[in-house]
Amino acid sequence: MQGSITWNELGVFIIFVFFAVAGGYAVITLKNVNRLVKEAAGLLQKNKDQLNEIIPNIHEISVNTKSMSKNLKKSVEEAGEAVRTISHETTDTVLTITETADSLAKYALVIGEIVQIVVNMFSSSEKGAK
Fold it and tell me: Which residues cross the membrane (predicted)?
């Protein structure tokens, strides 16, 4: 006894297998979704009192959060401005100190030269007196 399968029968068999696999997958997926929905419902039921307290205050919470974020943004901007100001002030102070140190060094050189001239004047007058 020989059997043969037509292309039509093979196509129907492939479609049947496809739908059987897809149906099994759908059953497993629906089972998992059903489990998640039950867990979510249990969680909502467990926290029903807390949710009933929070829900009327959601608007106030969002307004306060918005206000806090604006204040935080303003504070960060002010801190950034303060850092920039301190940076510029520090740079100016360092430049002033550098210029003052250079001026003091020049004054010290001038005073040193004056003292040397005075010492040379007195030492040359003492040599001439001897």
Answer: 12-30
